[in-house]
Amino acid sequence: MAASSSFCSQRTLPLRTPSHSHSKLSSRHSLVRLPASGSYSYPSPYLYSESNNYCSGTRAAKIGLKASATPAAPVMDQTSSSSPAVSTVVEVDLGDRSYPIYIGSGLLDQPQLLQRHVHGKQVLVVTNTTIAPLYLDKTIWALTDRNPNVKVESVILPDGEQYKNMETLMKVFDKAIESRMDRRCTFVALGGGVIGDMCGYAAASYLRGVNFIQIPTTVMAQVDSSVGGKTGINHRLGKNLIGAFYQPQCVLVDIDTLNTLPDRELASGLAEVIKYGLIRDAEFFEWQEKNMQALMARDSRAFTYAIKCSCENKAQVVSLDELESGLRATLNLGHTFGHAIETGFGYGQWLHGEAVAAGMVMAVDMSRRLGWIDDSLVKRVLNILQQAKLPTAPPESMTVDMFKSVMAVDKKVADGLLRLILLKGPLGSCVFTGEYDRQALDDTLRAFCKS
Ligand SMILES: NC(=O)c1ccc[n+]([C@@H]2O[C@H](COP(=O)([O-])OP(=O)(O)OC[C@H]3O[C@@H](n4cnc5c(N)ncnc54)[C@H](O)[C@@H]3O)[C@@H](O)[C@H]2O)c1
Ligand SMILES: [Zn+2]
Fold first, then answer.
1. Residues 330 and 40 sit within 8 Å (Cβ to Cβ)
2. Is 275 a catalytic residue?
3. How many domains does the structure of the chain reveal?
4. In a designed cystine with 355, which of 56, 126, 282, 341 is the match (CB 3.0 to 4.6 A)?
5. Any idea what the CATH number is for the domain that residue 439 is in?
6. Are 251 and 327 within one domain?
7. 235 among known catalytic residues
8. Out of 314, 369, 412, 424, which one is annotated catalytic?
9. What are the counts of helices (DSSP H) followed by strands (DSSP E) for the chain?
């Protein structure tokens, strides 16, 4: 079956001016109808000057985000790591559930940032055994400094995806109930995506919903899981099967927390950063091609910028399609193949971003076989993933049948048809579609598997 020509139509997004009010959002929602599958490409969001500088404030306005008071974020050179990091704010526009994402260095040293989003007098910090010794005291200080009326409790959960379950969730409720947390209390997630997802789901259901703040401490959480309101836990029969859409009051990304993050976790998060460039932001991808070494060297200004661009992209997708009726699915580039790797190879063997990286290579390979992208883009994807020290092929033990059996039960199967996110057209354009030649999928699987 050949791809339908309707997928060639390009979608552009409405631009939002700084005067855009929340009340206008609902009318925009009703205007933007999202197809179950379609082609998504966006107006070039960056300004790129001869001096190699990006003007981020203007860019934010151009891609329809509330402009932040951010000075221009320069492209990194290797000498910039000693300069102070700029902090920035990205607004997630969801009407009366809108919230800011603060990004920068030293944000946990600014108590007023956190305190302004704590409404009641009781706070429950949810964290784990790895992060508590590193950042719990600092977080409690930030919550209580010159704020004697607030009472902070904490619950320290075991570390690991295997604990993202109902039993561990109950420990959060136990602590909240024992501490007599009332409806005006605030839950604070201090950690990576596992803690963020669990704490968010606890906040969504405790007393039918209490305030919630995200302090993400992994790249994965800072660029992806803390933004957009997906919360939940795993069931023994599958990942993230129990959960809720629940938005936080704010997200506070203190990039200094990345200093203690293991290299492998850092690289895993970069897979999602690369993903945003590929699916919708060509100039961000080009910036990454020039600055991947700075990111790998944990240059704080490079990271502030990469997290900002990633959050802007995710925020915009989420504000257009909060409940994933179409556009939001494009954030899953490489995830269907990647999920098969995580399941087939065994959870915990490869990190999520590592599986997604190999999955993106497979999706890109398939897009090329369909004739939807140029060979040169395939090379650029391989090159940037190699620079980020991410895998570019699935583990050798993966077979065609392993891929097929997991992909057959993917959440994106509709009416027996597997819909995939594939690249189509120039860099920064993708489709979410079930209309592709099945042979191309078979050829890709065979090309990457020995049997
Ligand atoms: N809600 C969403 O939209 C969304 C999106 C993507 C991923 N997720 C979920 O996120 C989870 C993966 O998140 P993750 O990659 O952050 O994994 P994670 O939360 O398990 O963190 C990875 C490891 O790093 C440790 N760690 C965290 N911050 C640290 C720091 N600053 N210094 C040292 N160690 C630190 C953690 O304790 C853990 O051992 C998965 O459960 C996935 O389902 C959710
Ligand atoms: Zn992911």
1. yes
2. no
3. 2
4. 341
5. 1.20.1090.10
6. no
7. no
8. 314
9. 15, 16
CA of 145 to the centre of ligand 2 (A): 36
Instruction: Select which of 322, 324, 342, 354 is catalytic.
Output: 324
Of 134, 190, 218, the one to substitute when testing ligand 1's pocket (max ligand atoms within 8 A of C-beta) is 218
Same domain, yes or no: 92 and 175: yes
Contacts of 301 (CB under 8 A, 6+ apart): 73, 74, 76, 80, 81, 83, 85, 86
Q: Which of 261, 289, 310 is the last residue before a domain boundary?
A: 261
| Any domain includes 238 | yes
- Give tens-digit pLDDT for 87-142: 799 999 999 999 999 999 999 999 999 999 998 999 999 999 999 999 999 999 99
List the beta bridge partners of residue 243.
Answer: 232
Catalytic residue among 335, 380, 412, 419: 335
Q: Assess whether 118 and 227 both reside in one domain.
A: yes
> What CATH number has the domain bearing residue 239?
3.40.50.1970
Residues spanned by the domain of 188:
88-261
Confirm whether 236 is domain-assigned: yes
Who wins on pLDDT, 350 or 35?
350
Closest ligand, as measured to the CA of 163:
1
Q: What angle do CA 72, 306, 134 make, to 5 degrees?
A: 115
Q: Which of the pair, 16 or 417, is modelled with greater confidence?
A: 417
For the entire predicted model, the pTM comes to 0.85
Query: DSSP letters of 255-308?
Result: GGGGGGS-HHHHHHHHHHHHHHHHHH-HHHHHHHHHHHHHHHTT-HHHHHHHHH
**Same domain assignment for residues 337 and 433:** yes
Q: Known catalytic residue: 328? A: yes
Domain shared by 236 and 345, yes or no: no
Catalytic annotation on 339?
yes
The verdict on whether 324 is a catalytic residue reads yes
- Ligand 1 pocket, residue 217 CB under 6 Å: yes
Q: Is residue 230 situated within a structural domain? A: yes
Q: Give the closest residue to 85 by CA, choosing from 237, 277, 282, 308.
A: 308
Query: Is 272 a residue of the active site?
Result: yes
Buried/exposed code over 4-14 (b: 16+ C-beta within 10 A; e: otherwise): eeebeeeeebe
How remote is the CA of residue 350 from the centroid of ligand 1, in Å? 13
Q: Whose Cα sits closest to atom 34 in ligand 1?
A: 261
Sort residue 416 into left (φ over 0), alpha (ψ -120 to 50) or beta. Answer: left
Regarding whether 378 and 245 lie in a shared domain, the answer is: no
